[in-house]
Structure formats: C-alpha cells, structure tokens
Amino acid sequence: MNDKISVIIPVYQEDLTHIAQSVDSIKNQTYSNMEILVGLDDPTNVQAIEYLTQQEKGNTNFRLYVNHKNLGLAENLNQLIKKSTGTYIARMDADDVAEKDRLKKQYRFLRDNNLNFVSGAYDSIDEEGNIIKTSHKHDLFNRDIRIIEKYGNILTHPLWLVSKEVLENLKYRKVEPTEDYDLVARAMLDSNVKFGYIGESLLKYRIRINSESHRNPVKSIVMSNKVASSIRSQQILRIEELNFYEDRGGLHRKIIKFLGILYLIRYKMVRVYVEYSKK
User: Fold this and answer.
1) Which of 12, 226, 227, 279 is the least buried, fewest Cβ under 10 Å from its Cβ?
2) How does pLDDT run across 18-74, given as a tens digit for each residue?
3) Closest-CA residue to 105 (of 254, 229, 5, 205)
4) Peptide bond into 10 cis (omega under 30)
5) DSSP H stretches of helix in 101-163
6) Cα(54)–Cα(35) distance, rounded to whole angstroms?
7) Distance CA 81, CA 168 (A)
8) Distance separating alpha carbons of residues 15 and 256, to the nearest angstrom
9) For residue 267, what are the CA distances in angstroms to 6, 122, 152?
10) Could you give the CA distance from residue 109 to residue 59 in angstroms, rounded to a whole number?
11) Chain CA centroid to CA 79, Å
C-alpha cells in the first residue's frame, strides 16, 4: 500500500474563492491515502472559518486548526507538521491550484528514485486565474539541485513533498520571506537528504502583488543572497544574522535591486548550464 501523505495548507487572509479552489484541488487528488491539515492563522477570518469548518464535517481526513493568535507562517507550518500522521508531508498554498495527479506523480517519482525531498515546475497564474506563463523543464536529481541551490532556490515551496522525518528534524525558522530557502540550506548539510525536481508542471502558482516578497523586494533579495552564500560556504546562519536588514534609503534600494537582477541572471545561467548538461 502507498504511504500516507499529509497535505499541510497554511491559511491567513487569502481570498475565499482562492482558498476553495486550493482545497478542492487537493480533495480531488487521484492519490487516495492522504489527509489534509489546514492551519488558519487569522482567528478573525470568519468567512474562512465557516467554509473550512464545513469542509471538515463528515470528513475524517480533513482537519482544521484555528490559531488563537497569529503565529506567523513558520510556526504555523511547524504546528501542522507536528500534528500530521503521514510518512510524507506535501506543502500547498491556500491560493494555488494543484493538478489532480500531483501527489500521485510526485510520490512515484520520489519512490522510484529513492528520494526524500521533491519539488517541481509550475505554471504561473494571475489573481483572476489567467495563465501568465507555462513551464516544462527537465527532471533534475540530487547532484544537479545541490549545484543550483548555491545560487538560488529551484525548489518551489508549495510543491514540496518531503519525508516527515526531514521536516521534523529541521523545522522552519522565523526568517520570512526566506523560510523555505533557509530550510533547504540546512538540509543541504545532510548528505542523507536526496533532492529531486519534476520538470512537468503539477501546480498553478498564483502571483499576488501583496505577497511578502512583492511588498518588500529589497529585503527578499538581501535575505535570499545571504542564504545562497551560506550554502556555498556550508554554514548555517543565525536567525539574527539572516533577519538583519538595514534600509538605507532610495539609492541603497536601487543598488540592491540592480544586484538582484545580477543574482537572478547568475542563477538562470547556472540552471541553464545544469539542464543543458542533461541533454
């Protein structure tokens, strides 16, 4: 029998229509041995509470947890991992839409290749659900991913399928918006963690203009570069080091944004080189 997968979905103040689309896409998965755990991190979000409570009724594999206060994304995810009962944890965002075969294909890919940390390609959609960009990449494996991660994060967070043991050992740290890349960086130090990337798009990823990385792109660039540097040096940054960001005004922001473009070009060049070498 296939292993049990726990799908964890953090919810905050996403649009209710988007939440419903996300939840439905997981409920309709072709992979049957799973449970859905939703952590609502805004106890004042009455509409979401009512909708998710209805989803929970009569469904023993659906569990809603309403936090009494805002915990933040990292701690919300840690609590859901702790409450999960599956062998593997699948991440899902409350405003994205999974393809119906996502879990089935990810699980097969993970097991067939002896992996314990899988992500993959996605199509981008806007806030209305219109396709912005489609994607189909090459499948990549542990050695390839460990090279790419030194320059940027290829492991899309809402597409993670990871051994529960790995996530329990590492845990998320409060370093938003790079909590996912930070966890990957620490996983990189463990040779027992075997990464994989599925080139087929298995998710519609919603681009939101009010996301943390869009609200403060300069901070996101600085923190992401710190994580990339820590991977290259094989060191773990302290939370205080990673979170430290000094806003020095307009010119400084322009310089950081320009550097961000250079970092992105470097990342894309490394990724193209790695993918081209697979041909």
Assistant:
1) 279
2) 999 999 999 999 999 999 999 999 999 999 999 999 999 989 999 999 999 999 999
3) 5
4) no
5) 102-112, 142-148
6) 16
7) 7
8) 32
9) 32, 18, 6
10) 28
11) 16
C-alpha angle 257/260/262, rounded to 5°?
Answer: 120
| Entry pTM | 0.95
The CA-atom distances, in angstroms, between 96 and each of 34, 145, 151, 182, 192 are 19, 24, 26, 22, 30
Place of tokens 């050695």: 143
262 class by beta-carbon count within 10 Å (0-12 exposed, 13-18 middle, 19+ buried): exposed
DSSP tag of 67: -
Burial class (CB in 10 A: 0-12, 13-18, 19+), 174: middle
How many C-beta neighbours within 10 Å does residue 274 have? 17
DSSP helix/strand/coil, 91: strand
